Amino acid sequence: MIQFDAVHKRFPNGTTAVHDLSLEMPEGGVTVLVGSSGCGKTTTLRMINRMVEPTSGTIRVGGKDVTRQDAAELRRSIGYVIQQSGLFPHRTVLDNIATVPLLLGHGRRRARARAAELLETVGLTAEAGKRYPHQLSGGQQQRVGVARALAADPPVLLMDEPFGAVDPVVRTQLQDELLRLQKELSKTIVFVTHDIDEAVRLGDQIAIFRTGGHLVQCATPAELLARPADDFVADFLGAERGLKLLSLKTLAAVPQGPAPEGGAWTLVLDEADKPLHWASKDTELPVRPLKDTDSLLSALNESVASPAGLVARVDADGVLTGVTSRDDIHEHAGQAHTEARVAA
Amino acid sequence: MFELFKNLGKWLTNGASWAGSDGIAHRLAEHLQYSLLATLIAAAIGLPLGLLIGHTGKGAFVAINLASFGRALPTVGLVVLVFLAGGLSMLPVYVALVALAVPAIVTNTYAGMTAVDPDVKDAARGQGMRGHQVLFQVELPLALPLIMTGLRLALIQVVATATIAAYVSFGGLGRYVFDGLAQRDLVQVLGGAVLVAVVAVVLDLALSALQRFLFRHRTA
Amino acid sequence: MTIDWSWIGDHTDDLTSLTLSHLQAAMTAVFFGVLISLPLAVIAHRVRPLRGFLLGFSNILFTIPSIAIFVLLLPISGLTRTTTVIGLTVYTLVVLLRNTVEGLDSVPAKTKEAAKAMGTRPLRTLLTVEFPLALPVIMAGVRIATVMSISLVSVATYIGDGGLGQLFTDGFQRNFPTPVIVGVVLTILLAVVADALLVAVQYVLTPWRRRRA
């Protein structure tokens, strides 16, 4: 667990970057710090591994005050990933990943073996390990950055806008990978971004900062979306925050029934009972079947896009299990909002 | 004019002008010795200074103005001055050559250090490298191409300027220039100048080839 | 080593004329250097195949020692001021050419696109957009070339010219340090003043780069 207790940071030029911050970042969870530029979120992150020293207040990692530890040793025990990856251009990818194990005095062979293992963990080929960073794509470089941070198996991972410089498609992939990794590794992750969608997607807890280094609200994504503390937070979450909330809920609880027969549109299946398309008398339209793990938001989207107003539901193998009506989805969407408001 | 170059060719290809203690071979060796030693001393002074300024970010003003000052310093005047102060020795020549080379080395080393991507330095610190580890494992290797350029520029300038050793009665290829001027022997003057230019160009080409080979993995 | 102040007092006229002669040699060289390097730089900037050749050739010129350049010119122009100026000009060319090409390269492609899109012809774009925006880098080259020339004039003392450099030969031959010290100090002073003047010129020429008051 990481604890901020009345932490204040004023830079020598007089600007206050972080104002009287008290915050807990739970063990094994992802805490996302969001806000527009200059709100102190990056400074907050950098105070955890003492890249920036607080002016007053205390920061504890695992119960120990960070300022009472040797800065270099502290940093070796905390993974650090930054935008543009900050990889060493003169070292191969493998040696980049081996940086911290080597600093910790592990032998070169052991460090490289560990690095090779991590290449696979982050979804890169062994061949990529022999290349130099500039020979990789932006997305691949970012994966190497994550692998390097994980090399010494630190309990805490600091990520400063790690996916800020890659295109939206790659960013979504990297976010998925991070969620998959986190399920396996359960690190305590502090993640800085200015993208609220990324925050909602990745965070177990989101802390919203306002210019001047003020923490405005810290809550789970569902709480935040359902009950923003003030207009600033509401504005920051955007006009579609109601829909964003639905992205947090899955379709699992929504009932399904057999596909109706005799309507204007029929769901056509192949011989393995997998949905092929919607068919009417004279035309065919595509179908996008959903699984129980898909979000209520995609269900809502599909219910509007589907010609029959019905969402086809399938199991993990893609075999049809039933259909759900637009009305059922609407009802659950409404319930989800009510629940979130009451629970929060 | 044509006659002059024909005689120059004869002088350069004549075996006799290469042999002996005032032969080209010996003068060439002297010239290289002065140049390399002066550059080495300058590197011993300039490199640590440039690295220190680049690493700490303190004294950048010095590094920038040193270059300008170095260019403004009249080498001939400096040699004569140290010569008059210290008497007949190689000291004035080395002082002048080192003074010429140090600014080029310091400014290029400093430029190389400041050109290192701040994100990379931040990442290095963030992974838990100590100051000297950041300097020697990250900054120095990344600044090396520019540092090498500085050393190369310094060496070329020193080779070109080492002719002045002969001005205060020492050897090197400058001997031919000054003796030739004194004896109104234009062939000898030209011969000396051409030899110095060839040495400078060859060294420059060889060192840049070496540089390209050493840093072939780097991006532009 | 002491300075003979009375010698300085007795030779103020000589010192003034040597200083002016020194300055004139350096300035003429920089003037011709700029005159020659500007069109060459435009060619190197626009015609890619010629770029490597021009820059490479000027780099080789730079490796030739200054004394050698003067001496090599002797058969052509003899022991004259012309030799001094040509030699110095050759030396300034390298710095000026490299900086001017770099300056032109540094003009953002978008700005040139915008000028073109608004119907500006290439020559006009060059004169009203590219040169002004490249000016800071070009001026940096002019400053280096000027300081370098001022320092190098004294090398021409070997071929009987050399402005303040003559003080070095004089002091050396008579084993008398005062003229040497005066020569070194005046040379550096000239360089510093010329450099400061050029900074002022650049400030006036590029109002868009000043910090807002």
TrEMBL record, chain A:
Belongs to the ABC transporter superfamily. One of its GO terms (molecular function) is ATP binding. Gene3D superfamilies: P-loop containing nucleotide triphosphate hydrolases. Transmembrane segments: none annotated. Pfam families: ABC_tran. This is ABC transporter ATP-binding protein. InterPro entries: AAA+_ATPase, ABC_transporter-like_ATP-bd, ABC_transporter-like_CS, P-loop_NTPase. It comes from the Bacteria. SUPFAM superfamilies: P-loop containing nucleoside triphosphate hydrolases. Keywords: ATP-binding, Nucleotide-binding, Transport. The lineage of its organism: Bacteria, Bacillati, Actinomycetota, Actinomycetes, Kitasatosporales. Residues 2-237 form the ABC transporter domain.
UniProtKB/TrEMBL annotation, chain B:
Residues 28-211 form the ABC transmembrane type-1 domain. The chain crosses the membrane at residues 32-53, 153-174, 186-210. Keywords: Membrane, Transmembrane, Transmembrane helix, Transport. It is a multi-pass membrane protein. InterPro entries: ABC_transp_perm/SBD, MetI-like, MetI-like_sf. Its main location: membrane. It is found in: Cell membrane; Membrane. Belongs to the binding-protein-dependent transport system permease family. This is ABC transporter permease.
From TrEMBL, chain C:
It is a multi-pass membrane protein. Belongs to the binding-protein-dependent transport system permease family. The keyword Glycosyltransferase does not apply. It comes from Streptomyces coacervatus. This is ABC transporter permease subunit. Residues 19-198 form the ABC transmembrane type-1 domain. The chain crosses the membrane at residues 20-41, 53-73, 79-97, 133-160, 180-205. It is found in: Cell membrane; Membrane. It comes from the Bacteria.
